Amino acid sequence: MSNPHSYSDEEKKAVYKAMAERRDMRHFTDRPLESGLLSKILSAAHMAPSVGLMQPWRFVRISDRTIRQAIYDNVDQERVLTAEALGERKTEFLQLKVEGILQCAEVLVAALPDKREEHIFGRRTLPEMDIASLACAIQNMWLAARVEGIGMGWVSIF
Predict the structure, then answer these.
(1) Which residue in 64, 69, 139 sits closest to 102, CA to CA?
(2) Fold (CATH) for 21-147
(3) pTM confidence score
(4) What residue spans define the domains of the chain?
């Protein structure tokens, strides 16, 4: 009996290949993305599962170079402070590069609003479920970018 929700062997291989080849990029180009590609990648994010269908995420596109520089400066400052707190691992941690913020074609900031929805299914006992939902959205973006031949890099404000 066939399952209408199953994939062909070729489709399965493609999905597993995209997952296996998803990597954090550290070298970028400033060449603009093809028209419509960013929308396609963001659409993939919005297809992600989210607890109670809250879709708590907000994605902000940063194109202004001055704002990018300010983000870079903030992240780099936090990177140094985090390295100081790591003791023995300081040198290793300082090798992490965040220059991609300035070098890449697109900067997207994934954010959760300050006053996030309080009365959503799953949040009463597990208040971090919106963070888990955001992580699913980012993973969907990453896989979509990968199959489109685009790299992504995850930069945290440590």
Answers:
(1) 69
(2) NADH Oxidase (3.40.109)
(3) 0.84
(4) 21-147
